[in-house]
Write a sequence for this structure.
Protein backbone atom coordinates (compact mmCIF):
# COMPACT_ATOMS: atom_id res chain seq x y z
CA UNK A 1 0.00 0.00 0.00
CA UNK A 2 1.45 3.39 -0.97
CA UNK A 3 1.16 6.66 0.89
CA UNK A 4 1.20 10.25 -0.29
CA UNK A 5 3.89 12.62 0.96
CA UNK A 6 2.90 14.20 4.26
CA UNK A 7 1.78 17.85 4.15
CA UNK A 8 4.68 20.00 5.23
CA UNK A 9 4.93 21.75 8.58
CA UNK A 10 5.44 25.50 8.92
CA UNK A 11 8.91 26.86 8.26
CA UNK A 12 10.37 25.47 11.48
CA UNK A 13 13.39 23.27 10.70
CA UNK A 14 13.04 21.06 13.77
CA UNK A 15 9.32 20.55 13.21
CA UNK A 16 9.87 19.91 9.51
CA UNK A 17 12.53 17.26 10.07
CA UNK A 18 10.46 15.61 12.82
CA UNK A 19 7.41 15.40 10.56
CA UNK A 20 9.35 14.00 7.62
CA UNK A 21 11.25 11.51 9.79
CA UNK A 22 8.04 10.22 11.39
CA UNK A 23 6.50 9.75 7.96
CA UNK A 24 9.65 7.96 6.85
CA UNK A 25 9.48 5.53 9.77
CA UNK A 26 5.89 4.61 8.90
CA UNK A 27 6.81 4.12 5.24
CA UNK A 28 9.87 2.07 6.19
CA UNK A 29 7.73 -0.49 7.97
CA UNK A 30 5.71 -0.97 4.81
CA UNK A 31 8.83 -1.10 2.68
CA UNK A 32 10.57 -3.68 4.87
CA UNK A 33 7.50 -5.94 4.69
CA UNK A 34 7.49 -5.92 0.87
CA UNK A 35 8.89 -8.91 -1.00
CA UNK A 36 12.37 -8.36 -2.38
CA UNK A 37 11.08 -8.81 -5.92
CA UNK A 38 8.61 -5.95 -5.47
CA UNK A 39 11.31 -3.57 -4.22
CA UNK A 40 13.54 -4.57 -7.13
CA UNK A 41 10.79 -4.03 -9.70
CA UNK A 42 9.99 -0.62 -8.23
CA UNK A 43 13.64 0.41 -8.57
CA UNK A 44 13.61 -0.59 -12.23
CA UNK A 45 10.57 1.66 -12.67
CA UNK A 46 12.45 4.44 -10.92
CA UNK A 47 15.41 4.01 -13.29
CA UNK A 48 13.04 4.16 -16.28
CA UNK A 49 11.37 7.29 -14.89
CA UNK A 50 14.76 8.94 -14.46
CA UNK A 51 15.70 8.15 -18.07
CA UNK A 52 12.38 9.59 -19.26
CA UNK A 53 13.01 12.75 -17.24
CA UNK A 54 16.42 13.41 -18.84
CA UNK A 55 15.51 16.73 -20.53
CA UNK A 56 14.02 18.16 -17.35
CA UNK A 57 16.88 16.98 -15.15
CA UNK A 58 19.51 18.44 -17.50
CA UNK A 59 17.62 21.75 -17.64
CA UNK A 60 17.57 21.84 -13.83
CA UNK A 61 21.26 21.01 -13.73
CA UNK A 62 22.01 23.85 -16.14
CA UNK A 63 20.40 26.21 -13.61
CA UNK A 64 22.65 24.89 -10.87
CA UNK A 65 25.77 25.13 -13.04
CA UNK A 66 25.01 28.72 -13.99
CA UNK A 67 24.49 29.63 -10.34
CA UNK A 68 27.68 27.79 -9.38
CA UNK A 69 29.76 29.66 -11.94
CA UNK A 70 28.25 32.96 -10.81
CA UNK A 71 29.10 32.09 -7.20
CA UNK A 72 32.69 31.22 -8.05
CA UNK A 73 32.66 27.45 -7.55
CA UNK A 74 36.01 25.87 -8.44
CA UNK A 75 36.37 23.79 -11.62
CA UNK A 76 36.59 20.66 -9.47
CA UNK A 77 33.32 21.50 -7.70
CA UNK A 78 31.62 22.31 -10.98
CA UNK A 79 32.77 18.95 -12.34
CA UNK A 80 31.16 17.21 -9.36
CA UNK A 81 27.96 19.10 -10.01
CA UNK A 82 27.77 18.75 -13.79
CA UNK A 83 25.43 16.29 -15.51
CA UNK A 84 25.17 15.40 -19.17
CA UNK A 85 23.25 12.70 -21.00
CA UNK A 86 26.00 10.13 -20.46
CA UNK A 87 26.37 10.84 -16.74
CA UNK A 88 22.63 10.82 -16.20
CA UNK A 89 22.29 7.57 -18.11
CA UNK A 90 24.99 6.15 -15.85
CA UNK A 91 23.05 7.27 -12.77
CA UNK A 92 19.90 5.56 -14.04
CA UNK A 93 21.86 2.43 -14.92
CA UNK A 94 23.29 2.38 -11.39
CA UNK A 95 19.76 2.43 -9.95
CA UNK A 96 18.83 -0.51 -12.15
CA UNK A 97 22.05 -2.30 -11.19
CA UNK A 98 21.19 -1.95 -7.50
CA UNK A 99 17.78 -3.45 -8.20
CA UNK A 100 19.45 -6.55 -9.62
CA UNK A 101 21.87 -7.03 -6.71
CA UNK A 102 21.25 -9.87 -4.26
CA UNK A 103 19.05 -8.63 -1.42
CA UNK A 104 20.86 -8.93 1.93
CA UNK A 105 17.65 -8.61 3.96
CA UNK A 106 16.71 -11.94 5.50
CA UNK A 107 20.15 -13.46 4.93
CA UNK A 108 21.16 -15.90 7.67
CA UNK A 109 24.57 -14.73 8.91
CA UNK A 110 25.14 -17.73 11.15
CA UNK A 111 23.23 -20.28 13.20
CA UNK A 112 23.84 -22.63 16.10
CA UNK A 113 22.06 -24.98 18.46
CA UNK A 114 22.72 -25.17 22.20
CA UNK A 115 22.73 -28.43 24.20
CA UNK A 116 19.34 -27.49 25.64
CA UNK A 117 17.84 -27.58 22.15
CA UNK A 118 17.50 -23.80 21.62
CA UNK A 119 18.25 -22.81 18.02
CA UNK A 120 19.85 -19.42 17.35
CA UNK A 121 20.13 -17.50 14.09
CA UNK A 122 21.45 -14.04 13.21
CA UNK A 123 19.37 -12.52 10.41
CA UNK A 124 20.13 -9.40 8.35
CA UNK A 125 17.47 -6.70 8.71
CA UNK A 126 17.21 -3.06 7.51
CA UNK A 127 18.71 -0.37 9.72
CA UNK A 128 15.54 1.75 9.50
CA UNK A 129 15.51 5.42 8.53
CA UNK A 130 18.78 6.76 7.13
CA UNK A 131 19.53 10.46 6.82
CA UNK A 132 21.92 11.42 4.01
CA UNK A 133 23.45 14.91 4.11
CA UNK A 134 25.41 15.76 0.99
CA UNK A 135 26.86 18.52 -1.16
CA UNK A 136 27.32 19.21 -4.85
CA UNK A 137 26.89 15.72 -6.31
CA UNK A 138 23.34 15.19 -7.59
CA UNK A 139 24.08 11.52 -8.30
CA UNK A 140 23.95 10.94 -4.53
CA UNK A 141 20.20 11.59 -4.64
CA UNK A 142 19.69 8.54 -6.86
CA UNK A 143 22.42 6.34 -5.40
CA UNK A 144 21.29 6.82 -1.81
CA UNK A 145 17.62 6.35 -2.64
CA UNK A 146 18.27 3.15 -4.59
CA UNK A 147 20.49 1.57 -1.96
CA UNK A 148 18.17 2.44 0.90
CA UNK A 149 15.07 1.10 -0.86
CA UNK A 150 16.78 -2.12 -1.97
CA UNK A 151 17.84 -2.83 1.61
CA UNK A 152 14.42 -1.96 3.02
CA UNK A 153 15.40 1.41 4.53
CA UNK A 154 13.68 4.76 4.28
CA UNK A 155 15.86 7.65 3.05
CA UNK A 156 15.69 11.23 4.27
CA UNK A 157 17.82 13.29 1.88
CA UNK A 158 19.25 16.75 2.47
CA UNK A 159 21.20 17.97 -0.55
CA UNK A 160 23.36 21.05 -0.82
CA UNK A 161 22.19 24.36 -2.21
CA UNK A 162 24.67 24.04 -5.12
CA UNK A 163 22.57 21.20 -6.61
CA UNK A 164 19.12 22.15 -5.36
CA UNK A 165 17.37 22.13 -8.76
CA UNK A 166 19.12 18.96 -9.94
CA UNK A 167 18.29 17.13 -6.71
CA UNK A 168 14.63 18.08 -6.87
CA UNK A 169 14.30 16.95 -10.47
CA UNK A 170 16.03 13.62 -9.85
CA UNK A 171 14.03 13.02 -6.66
CA UNK A 172 10.72 13.73 -8.39
CA UNK A 173 11.48 11.27 -11.16
CA UNK A 174 12.61 8.55 -8.75
CA UNK A 175 9.54 8.89 -6.54
CA UNK A 176 7.26 8.76 -9.58
CA UNK A 177 8.75 5.41 -10.55
CA UNK A 178 8.86 4.03 -7.02
CA UNK A 179 5.23 4.88 -6.32
CA UNK A 180 4.22 3.28 -9.62
CA UNK A 181 5.96 0.15 -8.33
CA UNK A 182 4.10 0.16 -5.02
CA UNK A 183 6.70 1.79 -2.75
CA UNK A 184 5.34 4.43 -0.32
CA UNK A 185 6.24 7.93 -1.45
CA UNK A 186 7.46 8.79 2.05
CA UNK A 187 10.11 6.07 1.83
CA UNK A 188 12.35 8.50 -0.10
CA UNK A 189 11.99 12.14 0.91
CA UNK A 190 14.05 15.18 -0.02
CA UNK A 191 14.00 17.92 2.61
CA UNK A 192 12.46 20.89 0.77
CA UNK A 193 14.40 23.54 2.68
CA UNK A 194 18.01 24.68 2.28
CA UNK A 195 17.99 26.15 5.80
CA UNK A 196 21.20 24.93 7.45
CA UNK A 197 19.23 24.45 10.65
CA UNK A 198 17.67 21.41 9.01
CA UNK A 199 21.06 19.70 9.16
CA UNK A 200 21.24 20.35 12.88
CA UNK A 201 17.73 18.99 13.32
CA UNK A 202 18.66 15.79 11.49
CA UNK A 203 21.80 15.33 13.59
CA UNK A 204 19.84 15.47 16.82
CA UNK A 205 16.82 13.40 15.69
CA UNK A 206 17.69 10.43 17.89
CA UNK A 207 14.86 7.92 17.89
CA UNK A 208 13.57 9.15 14.53
CA UNK A 209 16.67 8.79 12.32
CA UNK A 210 18.73 5.64 12.84
CA UNK A 211 21.93 6.57 11.00
CA UNK A 212 23.44 9.64 9.32
CA UNK A 213 25.64 9.43 6.23
CA UNK A 214 27.41 12.70 5.28
CA UNK A 215 28.77 13.13 1.77
CA UNK A 216 30.65 16.36 1.24
CA UNK A 217 33.58 18.53 2.16
CA UNK A 218 35.64 18.45 5.32
CA UNK A 219 33.67 21.21 7.05
CA UNK A 220 30.35 19.39 6.55
CA UNK A 221 31.66 16.04 7.75
CA UNK A 222 33.45 17.62 10.72
CA UNK A 223 30.22 19.34 11.74
CA UNK A 224 28.26 16.12 11.44
CA UNK A 225 30.74 14.16 13.51
CA UNK A 226 30.92 16.89 16.17
CA UNK A 227 27.19 17.53 16.56
CA UNK A 228 25.50 14.22 15.80
CA UNK A 229 23.45 12.43 18.43
CA UNK A 230 22.70 9.78 15.83
CA UNK A 231 25.25 7.14 14.69
CA UNK A 232 27.37 8.43 11.78
CA UNK A 233 28.91 6.50 8.88
CA UNK A 234 31.50 8.73 7.21
CA UNK A 235 35.00 9.68 6.20
CA UNK A 236 36.47 13.09 6.93
CA UNK A 237 39.29 13.32 4.37
CA UNK A 238 40.56 11.37 1.39
CA UNK A 239 44.30 11.89 1.90
CA UNK A 240 45.30 9.00 -0.33
CA UNK A 241 48.85 7.86 -1.08
CA UNK A 242 50.44 6.01 -3.96
CA UNK A 243 53.87 4.54 -3.19
CA UNK A 244 56.03 3.81 -6.21
CA UNK A 245 58.36 1.07 -4.99
CA UNK A 246 61.89 0.51 -6.28
CA UNK A 247 60.67 -2.54 -8.20
CA UNK A 248 57.77 -0.76 -9.91
CA UNK A 249 57.43 -1.00 -13.68
CA UNK A 250 58.09 2.58 -14.89
CA UNK A 251 55.37 2.64 -17.53
CA UNK A 252 52.83 1.21 -15.10
CA UNK A 253 53.84 3.64 -12.36
CA UNK A 254 53.40 6.63 -14.67
CA UNK A 255 50.03 5.45 -15.97
CA UNK A 256 48.72 4.78 -12.46
CA UNK A 257 50.00 8.07 -11.04
CA UNK A 258 48.46 10.14 -13.85
CA UNK A 259 45.13 8.37 -13.51
CA UNK A 260 45.08 8.42 -9.71
CA UNK A 261 45.66 12.16 -9.60
CA UNK A 262 44.17 13.61 -12.78
CA UNK A 263 41.29 11.39 -13.99
CA UNK A 264 38.90 13.31 -11.73
CA UNK A 265 40.63 15.48 -9.17
CA UNK A 266 37.47 16.24 -7.18
CA UNK A 267 36.60 12.69 -6.10
CA UNK A 268 37.49 11.30 -2.68
CA UNK A 269 39.59 8.52 -4.25
CA UNK A 270 41.98 10.96 -5.90
CA UNK A 271 45.65 10.56 -4.96
CA UNK A 272 46.89 13.50 -2.89
CA UNK A 273 50.44 12.34 -2.06
CA UNK A 274 52.89 10.43 -4.23
CA UNK A 275 55.73 8.65 -2.47
CA UNK A 276 58.65 7.70 -4.76
CA UNK A 277 61.27 5.24 -3.64
CA UNK A 278 64.74 6.76 -3.92
CA UNK A 279 65.84 3.57 -5.72
CA UNK A 280 63.13 3.86 -8.40
CA UNK A 281 65.05 4.49 -11.64
CA UNK A 282 62.55 6.75 -13.46
CA UNK A 283 61.72 9.35 -10.81
CA UNK A 284 62.50 12.32 -13.06
CA UNK A 285 60.28 11.07 -15.88
CA UNK A 286 57.45 10.29 -13.47
CA UNK A 287 57.37 13.74 -11.89
CA UNK A 288 57.85 15.50 -15.24
CA UNK A 289 54.91 13.58 -16.72
CA UNK A 290 52.62 14.78 -13.94
CA UNK A 291 53.67 18.39 -14.41
CA UNK A 292 53.43 18.13 -18.20
CA UNK A 293 49.81 16.96 -17.80
CA UNK A 294 48.90 20.09 -15.83
CA UNK A 295 49.50 18.99 -12.25
CA UNK A 296 51.09 21.38 -9.77
CA UNK A 297 53.68 19.39 -7.82
CA UNK A 298 54.77 20.37 -4.32
CA UNK A 299 57.73 18.39 -3.10
CA UNK A 300 60.34 17.86 -0.43
CA UNK A 301 63.96 18.79 -1.13
CA UNK A 302 64.80 15.66 -3.11
CA UNK A 303 61.59 15.88 -5.14
CA UNK A 304 62.40 19.50 -6.02
CA UNK A 305 65.74 18.36 -7.39
CA UNK A 306 63.96 16.15 -9.93
CA UNK A 307 62.38 19.00 -11.89
CA UNK A 308 62.82 22.77 -11.49
CA UNK A 309 59.04 23.20 -11.77
CA UNK A 310 58.46 21.42 -8.43
CA UNK A 311 57.68 23.98 -5.74
CA UNK A 312 58.51 23.52 -2.04
CA UNK A 313 55.97 21.64 0.03
CA UNK A 314 54.95 23.04 3.40
CA UNK A 315 54.35 20.92 6.49
CA UNK A 316 50.61 21.23 5.92
CA UNK A 317 50.76 19.78 2.42
CA UNK A 318 51.23 16.23 3.69
CA UNK A 319 47.88 16.48 5.50
CA UNK A 320 45.89 18.27 2.79
CA UNK A 321 43.11 16.89 0.61
CA UNK A 322 43.48 19.16 -2.43
CA UNK A 323 40.62 17.87 -4.60
CA UNK A 324 42.38 19.78 -7.37
CA UNK A 325 45.28 19.37 -9.81
CA UNK A 326 47.80 19.68 -6.99
CA UNK A 327 49.97 16.87 -5.65
CA UNK A 328 52.46 16.45 -2.80
CA UNK A 329 55.53 14.36 -3.69
CA UNK A 330 58.08 12.94 -1.27
CA UNK A 331 61.12 10.75 -1.85
CA UNK A 332 61.43 7.85 0.60
CA UNK A 333 64.25 5.40 1.32
CA UNK A 334 62.46 2.10 1.12
CA UNK A 335 59.20 0.44 2.08
CA UNK A 336 59.64 0.92 5.82
CA UNK A 337 59.90 4.70 5.46
CA UNK A 338 56.88 4.74 3.15
CA UNK A 339 54.84 2.80 5.70
CA UNK A 340 55.80 5.25 8.45
CA UNK A 341 54.84 8.24 6.28
CA UNK A 342 51.47 6.71 5.42
CA UNK A 343 50.73 5.79 9.04
CA UNK A 344 51.44 9.39 10.05
CA UNK A 345 49.57 11.22 7.28
CA UNK A 346 46.96 8.93 5.69
CA UNK A 347 43.28 9.51 6.45
CA UNK A 348 42.73 5.72 6.27
CA UNK A 349 40.72 6.02 3.06
CA UNK A 350 42.72 4.51 0.16
CA UNK A 351 46.44 3.84 -0.18
CA UNK A 352 48.24 2.01 -2.98
CA UNK A 353 51.60 0.49 -3.85
CA UNK A 354 53.02 0.04 -7.35
CA UNK A 355 55.59 -2.75 -7.50
CA UNK A 356 56.53 -6.03 -9.17
CA UNK A 357 57.91 -7.30 -5.86
CA UNK A 358 55.24 -9.65 -4.51
CA UNK A 359 56.66 -9.72 -0.99
CA UNK A 360 56.73 -5.92 -0.75
CA UNK A 361 53.16 -5.75 -2.04
CA UNK A 362 51.90 -8.28 0.50
CA UNK A 363 53.60 -6.45 3.36
CA UNK A 364 52.04 -3.15 2.22
CA UNK A 365 48.57 -4.72 1.95
CA UNK A 366 48.91 -6.27 5.40
CA UNK A 367 50.38 -3.31 7.29
CA UNK A 368 48.67 -0.24 5.86
CA UNK A 369 45.62 0.23 8.08
CA UNK A 370 43.27 1.93 5.63
CA UNK A 371 39.76 1.02 4.56
CA UNK A 372 41.07 0.25 1.06
CA UNK A 373 44.60 -0.86 0.18
CA UNK A 374 45.63 -1.51 -3.41
CA UNK A 375 48.45 -3.12 -5.37
CA UNK A 376 49.22 -1.99 -8.93
CA UNK A 377 45.93 -0.10 -9.34
CA UNK A 378 44.75 3.50 -9.35
CA UNK A 379 43.17 4.86 -6.18
CA UNK A 380 40.38 6.20 -8.40
CA UNK A 381 38.89 2.68 -8.21
CA UNK A 382 37.74 3.57 -4.67
CA UNK A 383 34.12 3.42 -5.73
CA UNK A 384 31.34 0.99 -4.91
CA UNK A 385 30.45 0.44 -8.54
CA UNK A 386 34.02 -0.57 -9.34
CA UNK A 387 33.93 -3.01 -6.42
CA UNK A 388 30.90 -4.74 -7.95
CA UNK A 389 28.61 -3.34 -5.26
CA UNK A 390 26.43 -1.29 -7.61
CA UNK A 391 26.07 2.25 -6.31
CA UNK A 392 27.54 3.22 -2.95
CA UNK A 393 26.19 5.43 -0.22
CA UNK A 394 29.67 6.52 0.80
CA UNK A 395 33.14 5.44 1.86
CA UNK A 396 33.53 4.66 5.56
CA UNK A 397 36.94 4.95 7.22
CA UNK A 398 35.91 4.14 10.77
CA UNK A 399 36.27 0.75 12.42
CA UNK A 400 32.70 -0.07 13.41
CA UNK A 401 29.85 -1.61 11.40
CA UNK A 402 31.09 -0.99 7.85
CA UNK A 403 34.35 0.06 6.20
CA UNK A 404 35.28 1.09 2.66
CA UNK A 405 32.54 1.45 0.03
CA UNK A 406 29.21 1.09 1.82
CA UNK A 407 26.51 -0.54 -0.27
CA UNK A 408 23.63 -2.87 0.53
CA UNK A 409 25.20 -5.00 3.23
CA UNK A 410 26.47 -1.89 5.02
CA UNK A 411 22.89 -0.62 5.18
CA UNK A 412 21.72 -3.59 7.22
CA UNK A 413 22.09 -4.65 10.81
CA UNK A 414 20.99 -7.93 12.32
CA UNK A 415 18.67 -9.43 14.88
CA UNK A 416 18.71 -12.74 16.71
CA UNK A 417 15.96 -15.27 16.15
CA UNK A 418 15.66 -17.92 18.83
CA UNK A 419 13.51 -21.02 18.35
CA UNK A 420 12.66 -23.28 21.22
CA UNK A 421 10.41 -26.15 22.17
CA UNK A 422 9.30 -25.07 25.63
CA UNK A 423 12.69 -24.53 27.29
CA UNK A 424 12.81 -22.59 30.58
CA UNK A 425 15.98 -21.32 32.20
CA UNK A 426 17.02 -23.01 35.42
Amino acid sequence: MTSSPAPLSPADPAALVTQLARAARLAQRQLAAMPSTVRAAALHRAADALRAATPGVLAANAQDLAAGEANGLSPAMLDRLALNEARLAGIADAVAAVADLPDPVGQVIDSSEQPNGLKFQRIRVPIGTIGIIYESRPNVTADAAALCVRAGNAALLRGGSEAVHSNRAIHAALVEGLVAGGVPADAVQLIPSQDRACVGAMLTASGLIDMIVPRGGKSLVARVQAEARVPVLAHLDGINHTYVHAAADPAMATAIALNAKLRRTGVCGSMETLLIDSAFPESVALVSALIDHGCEVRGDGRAQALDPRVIPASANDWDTEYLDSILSVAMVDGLEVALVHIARHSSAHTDAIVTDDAAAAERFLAEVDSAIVMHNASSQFADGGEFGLGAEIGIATGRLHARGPVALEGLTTYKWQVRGSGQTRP
